[in-house]
From TrEMBL:
Organism (species): Clostridioides difficile (Peptoclostridium difficile)
GO biological process: lysine biosynthetic process via diaminopimelate
Gene3D superfamilies the UniProt entry points to: Alanine racemase (3.20.20.10), Lyase, Ornithine Decarboxylase, Chain A, domain 1 (2.40.37.10)
Residue span(s) of domain Orn/DAP/Arg decarboxylase 2 N-terminal: 23-264
Keyword Lyase: yes
Presence of keyword Hydrolase: no
Record keywords: Lyase, Pyridoxal phosphate
Top enzyme category: lyase
Annotated protein name in UniProt: Pyridoxal-dependent decarboxylase
EC number from the UniProt entry: 4.1.1.20
Pfam families cross-referenced by the UniProt entry: Orn_Arg_deC_N
Cofactor(s) for this UniProt protein: pyridoxal 5'-phosphate
InterPro entries from the UniProt entry: Ala_racemase/Decarboxylase_C, De-COase2_N, Orn/DAP/Arg_de-COase, PLP-binding_barrel
C-alpha cells in the first residue's frame, strides 16, 4: 500500500513508474534461497534504472549487460568487473576498447575473438573472455536451430584454430541462452544439465579452461494466472542441485543464471493521468496521457498473437 505522500507524488508526476524495492529484494532472495550453488546476474535490459540496479547489486547479484552503456551502468552502481558479463552480437572495436578493463567480455563470434585479441595486444594485456555457444538442441528437443547469437557448437574446431593464433585472450567460460519465459521447471532443469555437459566436454580442450558457465536465463514469469502456472523454483532446485553437486566434483566452476525479467516484472506499477472521459454509444472511454508508449508489451504481444495466429515463429523471443 502507498502512503498519502506516495499518492501525492503520483498525482504530481504521472505518467510515472513506481517500483517496490521490498518486492524486488524478495524476488532476489527467492532465487538465492531456492537455487543453491549458483550465482545470479541481473539482466540490466529489463530495467536499467540506476537505483534498481544498485539495490539488486547489494543483494549480491552480478550483471548481465548487453551493451557498453549497460556495462557502465553496472560499474557505476557498484558491480565489480568480475561480476559484469558483457554479451551481445556485433560488438565494435570502440565497444571493446571502452569496456576492456571493466567486465568479462563474451565473444559472440570467431571474428569477435580475433578482434578482442587485436585490442588486447594493442594494450599489451591478456584478458579472460567467455564465448557464446549456439547448442545443437532447443528447449523442447534435440534439433539444432540457426541463430544470430553465438557460435554453432559444431564450429568449435574453427574456434580452437583461431585461439591457437591468439596470445592475448584466454577462454575461461561459456555462455548459452536459447529461450526466455520458460515456466516448465523440467524443461529448464534439463536444459541447464545439457549446458553443463557442453562445458565438461569443452574443458577437455587445451584452449579452454572452464572457470564459469553462464546458463542464460529462461526463468519465466506467469502473466496470465488463469492460463499459466508460475515457475516452480522448489522443483527446479532439485534438478539444479544435481548440477551443483557434479560441478563440485568436476569443474569446480562458477555457475551463473541470468535473472531475465523475473525480479522486476511484477515489482512496479505504471501510473497515468486521466485527461478526458468520453462516452460513445453507451461505452465509456478513459483518455489517458502517455498510454501506449509507456506500456507497450500488452499491445505488441496481442498484435503479434493476432498476426501469427498464436504460432511461435522460428527465432522469435517471447514478449
Amino acid at each position: 500500500m502507498y502512503s498519502n505522500e506516495d499518492y501525492k507524488f503520483i498525482e504530481e508526476n504521472a505518467p510515472c513508474y513506481i517500483y517496490d524495492e521490498t518486492n524486488i529484494i524478495e524476488k532476489c532472495k527467492e532465487l538465492k534461497n531456492n537455487i543453491l550453488g549458483f550465482d545470479f546476474l541481473y539482466s540490466i535490459k529489463t530495467n536499467p534504472y540506476n537505483k534498481i540496479v544498485k539495490s539488486i547489486a547489494e543483494q549480491g547479484f552480478g550483471a548481465d549487460a548487453s551493451s557498453t552503456n549497460e556495462v557502465m551502468i553496472s560499474s557505476k552502481c557498484g558491480v565489480s568487473k568480475d561480476d559484469i558479463y558483457y554479451s551481445s552480437p556485433g560488438k565494435t572495436e570502440i565497444d571493446i576498447e571502452t569496456v576492456l578493463d571493466k567486465c568479462i567480455i563474451i565473444a559472440d563470434s570467431i571474428t569477435e575473438i580475433e578482434l578482442i585479441n587485436k585490442i588486447s595486444k594493442k594494450h599489451n594485456q591478456k584478458v579472460k573472455i567467455g564465448i557464446r555457444i549456439n547448442p545443437d538442441f532447443t528447449m523442447d528437443d534435440d534439433s539444432a536451430k540457426s541463430s544470430k547469437f553465438g557460435i554453432d557448437i559444431e564450429d568449435m574446431s574453427s574456434v580452437f584454430k583461431m585461439l591457437s593464433m591468439c596470445d592475448y585472450v584466454s577462454v575461461v567460460g561459456i555462455h548459452i541462452h536459447i529461450k526466455s519465459q520458460v515456466l516448465d521447471f523440467e524443461k529448464l532443469g534439463h536444459y541447464y544439465e545439457k549446458c553443463f555437459f557442453i562445458a565438461l566436454n569443452l574443458n577437455k580442450s587445451k584452449y579452454i579452461n572452464i572457470e564459469f558457465i553462464n546458463f542464460g536465463s529462461g526463468l519465466g514469469v506467469a502473466y496470465d494466472n488463469l492460463r499459466e502456472n508460475p515457475l516452480n523454483l522448489k522443483e527446479l532446485s532439485k534438478l539444479t542441485q544435481k548440477i551443483a553437486f557434479t560441478n563440485s566434483n568436476t569443474l569446480k566452476s562458477r555457475l551463473l543464471i541470468e535473472s531475465g525479467r523475473f525480479i522486476v516484472c511484477k515489482s512496479g506499477n505504471y501510473y497515468v493521468k486521466i485527461v478526458d472521459i468520453k462516452v460513445s454509444r453507451g461505452k465509456k472511454y478513459l483518455i489517458v496521457k502517455n498510454g501506449l508508449n509507456g506500456f507497450m508489451r500488452p499491445i505488441i504481444s496481442n498484435l503479434i498473437e493476432n498476426i501469427t495466429c498464436g504460432v511461435e515463429l522460428e527465432g522469435q523471443e517471447p514478449l
